[in-house]
């Protein structure tokens, strides 16, 4: 990824992030000046750019392909999937999970995992558990197919306001995190005002895209699952034996999910995670008044 800063605070944040990367072994992470920004992504205007950071080891993934791989592997081990069935509630025995209720009938189990994303709090309420997760809409605009930018262009993120773009399948994806305040927090429509603002920022910062058409019908929106401190809730649900939470990844889910699944399997099978200490992610931290420091989120 190529991060760009146009404000001193953004530049300082990128320098601090680089030190964290290097401490974790990513020695190739480096701070860059405006001239290097221009070399790494010639399509971007460097007017007002102070510098940035770049890590050539960063990469992309396709979440649905990752999911497909896990599903195929699980089937080989005997797992059965039932898609398209909502969880309508739970049956309890002595305050412990005994079955999951669906329109197609009950599924007997002594262990259930709430991994319902933006709908995690709703699922928790079905069994009397408070899951402090709320939805946050994020929108994506994309250009019509063409050759506006090369496939080799690094994903480029303006650190000061989160505007970012990348090339995928001969199109350019354009994103900017706004602060939606509509009446329906689960609304996944694309806001025309947001789209107009994204187009304006694109033309200002990426002059080469000033004449590229937007595929308005192809734009989409989805929901982040936000926790109060921007970190996941992982572990046994307080007050409900047999229910486990894997919620609130706050925009980091596709990156963290393989590790979260592994750690939760250890918690369920062994009573605690052994690979790393998951205490900072325990679901009860908010009731204890001990949240983690909230990160800056795109």
Description:
With 298 residues, this protein is α+β, with helices and mostly antiparallel strands. The protein has helices spanning 8-23, 34-40, 63-76, 120-125, 192-205, 253-270; strands spanning 2-5, 30-32, 51-54, 89-93, 96-102, 105-108, 112-114, 134-142, 156-158, 164-168, 171-175, 220-226, 233-236, 243-247. The strands form three sheets. An eight-stranded mixed beta sheet has the order 2-3-1-9-10-11-8-12, sandwiched between helices.
Number of helices: 6
**Percent of sequence in beta strands:** 15-25%
Chain-averaged pLDDT? 94
Backbone shape: globular
Compute the CA-based radius of gyration.
22 Å
What is the number of beta strands? 14
| Structural class by helix and strand composition | alpha+beta
Low-confidence region ranges = none
Order of helices and strands: EHEHEHEEEEHEEEEHEEEH
Give the proportion of residues in helices. Answer: 25-40%
Largest sheet: 8 strands, mixed
The termini sit apart by 14 Å
What quaternary form is this?
single chain
Give the strand line-up of the largest sheet. Answer: 2-3-1-9-10-11-8-12
